[in-house]
Amino acid sequence: MKKLLTGIAAFVMAAGLSSAFAADLPPAPQVYAPRPALVPPIYSWTGCYLGIEGGGAWGDSQHSQAGPLPNPANEGRSITGDFTVSGGLFGGTVGCNYQVNNVAFGIENDLSWTNINGIASDIPPFNTAATSSTHETWLDTLRGRAGLAWDRVFFYGTGGAAFANVGVQICAPTICVSDSQIRTGWVAGVGGEWATWTGAAGSLTLKLEYLHVDLGSGRFIDSPVPTPAGGTIVTRDVRLSDEIFRGGVNWKFNGW
User: Fold this and answer.
1) 11-39: per-residue pLDDT in tens?
2) Residue 144, number of CB atoms within 10 A of its CB
3) Is domain 47-253 annotated with CATH 3.40.1080.10?
4) Cα distance between residue 66 and residue 235, in whole Å
């Protein structure tokens, strides 16, 4: 019995020392899982937008005699040779895009005021004292766009239909004659757009673009006009094309 009591006392003492020693140890470290890194969402070009655009244009025009009057030998002959037209443009844009993976495509329409014009002296065998000019007062393009998007950058090709108000003025000594018409042609080009800022309501984007516009050849001064000096301002086919370099600012709406 004495041995049993001695063993119990020894066990209790050992347990007390062990508890006291454990109380002196620092607490065990807590293990936490690391927070996941915050990855910004990939930008989407899907949506509709409004914007403004403007830039400059350089192009080429030529007047040629249409029809046999007054001199059948000159039918189809160039009156002016090629000459340069140039000017500025400014207008508005509306469009919509849809993005699948990194491919984006859509449709865009823009309407611009332009002051593109050029003038040339007539060349022999026509009256070298006369001048012929071509001018363009507005331009509308309706185009598809398709390309590759890398997050906030979108590179695209574009093409479609072009419509413009084209006019001519022919001035011979003592008389000037004018004519105008709406011409239809085609347009194609390339561009790039960058989403610079995004908020709750939408995104602000900037773009740069090159367009080639071909308005073909239209007939002007449909009946020859006699001049007081005894000459004739002839009916003519007028060719016009533009090379346009422009920038734009668009606002893409969220939820459209």
Assistant:
1) 445 455 455 444 455 666 666 666 665 55
2) 14
3) no
4) 5
Structure tokens that stand for 220 in this block: 């002007």
Terminal-residue alpha carbon distance, the chain: 92
Peptide bond into 70 cis (omega under 30): yes
What radius of gyration, in Å, describes the C-alpha atoms of the chain? Answer: 38
Residues 6+ apart with CB under 8 A from 56: 86, 87, 88, 89, 244, 245, 246
Is this structure's pTM higher than 0.85? no
Residue whose entry in the numeric block shows the structure tokens 């080639």:
212
- Count Cβ neighbours within 10 Å for each residue of 58-91 and write b for 16 or more, e otherwise: ebbbbbbbbbeeeeeebeeebbbeebebebebeb
Structure tokens, 10: 């020894």
Nearest to 135 by CA among 217, 39, 240, 234: 240
Q: pLDDT tens per residue, the chain (256 residues)?
A: 555 445 545 544 545 545 544 445 566 666 666 666 555 678 999 999 999 999 999 999 999 999 999 999 999 999 999 999 999 999 999 999 999 999 999 999 999 999 999 999 999 999 999 999 999 999 999 999 999 999 999 999 999 999 999 999 999 999 999 999 999 999 999 999 999 999 999 999 999 999 999 999 999 999 999 999 899 999 999 999 999 999 999 999 987 6
Phi, psi of 13 (to 5 degrees): -65, -40
Domain ranges of the chain: 47-253
Tokens 């140890």, residue? 25
The set of residues, in sequence order, having a beta carbon less than 8 Å from that of 140 and lying 6+ positions away, is: 109, 110, 111, 112, 162, 163, 164
